[in-house]
Amino acid sequence: MFDVDGVLIDTFEIVRRAYAEVGVDLHDQRWGVAWQTWLPEYCDNDLDRARVLHDQKTEAHLDLLTRTTVNTLAGAQVADSLHSRGWTVKFLTAGTRQVVHQTFHAVNPSWLGRLAGTDLTSAGKRQMLGEISAGGGVYVDDNRDLGVAITEDSAWNLVHFRGQTEEELTTEIVEQWTR
Prior knowledge:
Layout: E1 2-3, E2 9-10, H1 12-21, H2 35-42, H3 47-67, E3 71-72, H4 74-84, E4 91-92, H5 97-107, E5 115-117, H6 122-132, E6 137-141, H7 144-151, E7 156-160, H8 166-177
Helix pairs in contact: 1-3, 2-3, 3-5, 4-8, 6-7
């Protein structure tokens, strides 16, 4: 299982710019965190305002995708390599479904068949991992704290993606899988 943003694709700048276009500062502590967990508080607990801002951010993001190249990261090559060797490889994200679909169409349309969930909070990702395999597996995330929260007290092992090479990341995943 792979998180999408920051593991498969480098979207930080595009997401930051989309939020900036609607007047929201996306600082590092909010990166990778589902909007539902922080944007309502940012909007003085006005859920309707938070939804409107998020919808506006989504439109800005979709527009930016038409003008911006999204770069893949080592996680993308590792996921494709493991998939080609017969491993079950799925993708989870806090990203909005519409944005993720447009991004995957631009970067690698075959990934759509491996997309297991979008718009997921940490609790949603944790639940999805359990549904995919109660027996566990390996989950790769670029946000260590979120990854720990998602995998702790479960049969899933976390690999923290922090810019490793394809070879290094593959080695870490295989080591965690065979633990």
